[in-house]
Amino acid sequence: MFLNECFGRLLIALVLMGRLVGVTFVLVFGCSYVLGTNRPNIVFIMADDLGYGDVGFNGQTHIKTPHIDRLAVEGMVFSDHYAGSTVCMPSRCSLLTGKHMGVATVRGNPRWTATGKPIDLAPSDVTVAEELKKAGYRTGIVGKWGLAEGSDEGLPTRQGFDFFYGYRTHREAHHYYWSEPWRGETKEPVDGNDVQTKSGKYLQDLFTAEALGFVRESANDARPFFLYVAYAAPHYELTVPEDSKAPYKDLGWPKRPMKQGGHYLHDEEGNVTYAGMVSRMDSDIGRLLDCLVEMGLDENTIVMFTSDNGPEYEKRDAFFDSNGIYRGGKRELYEGGIRVPMVVRWPGVIEAGSTTSIVSAFEDFLPTACELAGVSPSDPEVTGVSLVPTLRGNEADQVESAFRYWEFNEREGPLQAIRMGDWKAVRFVGNRTELYNLEDDPSETMDVARKYPEVLEKLEKAINLARTEHAGFPLVKRSE
């Protein structure tokens, strides 16, 4: 990195000298890198419904996550990182488009739109894959997409990805033995897979195999690559092969029998299954990290790991403490529903074992990736900020967003929330608003709206200004 910075300064000096002596240099600069230098590969790994406290680096003691924790030991932990939403589809939209829920195209899951018909990514949306592809990157996704529920225009292959293998829709991703994953724009049946009997190949294993294949192919490609690994684990349904449960059996854990029947075909015992699912994903991440080393790509690859929203399995039961000290979980806008684990590893650049409390969110990924690639976001409505200064150890130079905004409107809504500095407001149906100071009360146990009316008024005005109207997602009470 030091050499890159020195080289950049040298080129700038040459340009200035050229102007003085009448010599012309033609140079093109990106945001932080000189184009033509060795831009980093980017691997973004996302779990599904994994809580803030479900990983060892955030205090988990029951579930073993050694490979994810290795990222923390060798990289930087973001303690105040937020998902784009408290459920899957809008959160992924925020990640890929760099926009918060006040301006995003997708603001809710498929059946909760005004018409009951899904709203997908639109052709006008500019995704991080499109930005990186224009910058010369090879792009791929394996796992759960969930942004092409009703329209082919939302398919990853039409949103900047060269390669796609996985689940197209949310409902498909609710089954780990689904028989028809997608390859590109075509279904590719898996012989022997049966959802009802949970037999055949565990699709998470296939996703990892495809991710490894993408990395190995990229090693022989002159282009840098972006790989988005979107695991479905540990989202319902809870099921995992027996070998992943074995380390957690006979430990004297409390039993949590799972209800059988209906859409989700859970394994019988919840705690052992949940732990096994998280640890199996962790092992797969370890295989991916090892592959980067094997292919000689490790030193020039930035790896990020997070979750798409807070926990579903354990919002209130306290055995795993999936939400840590935070209140609530999935489908809530308290911290437990939107604050998620986040760690970034970049050998030789990020200080090993470092932590930052910079308030960051999914919307920051696109501008961060753009700066890494040496380009600027092409959509002027991007609301995120690049986190590259923080990653490079220059936190004093980090530009911070003025606020973070969320909304949610299933049966629990309409809900809105905003964070400005240490203050957070949560607005409920009927315009009742709670106010919390997260520095004093990170668990959101004390509503101080009456104590600080001037702060409440400021945040409520900010909530109103943060949102643009969207016919598909009006803030009105939903029914089943």
What features would you describe in this structure?
The protein is an alpha/beta fold. The protein folds into 3 domains: 1-30, no CATH class; 41-402, Alkaline Phosphatase, subunit A, CATH 3.40.720.10; 406-466, Arylsulfatase, C-terminal domain (2-Layer Sandwich), CATH 3.30.1120. The chain is built from 11 helices and 16 strands. Strands 7-6-5-4-8-1-9-10-2-11 form a 10-stranded mixed sheet, with helices on both faces. The longest helix has 25 residues, at 270-294.
CATH architecture identity of the largest domain: 3-Layer(aba) Sandwich
CATH-derived topology of the largest domain: Alkaline Phosphatase, subunit A
Please trace the helix and strand order, writing H or E for each element. Answer: HEHEEHHEEEEHEHHEHEEEHHEEEEH
How many β-strands, per DSSP? 16
The rounded Rg comes to: 22 Å
- The helix content is 25-40%
Helix/strand/pairing category: alpha/beta
The CATH superfamily title of the largest domain: Alkaline Phosphatase, subunit A
> How many distinct folded domains?
3
Relative strand content: 15-25%
Measured distance between first and last alpha carbons: 54 Å
- What value does the average pLDDT take? 92
Specify the overall morphology: globular
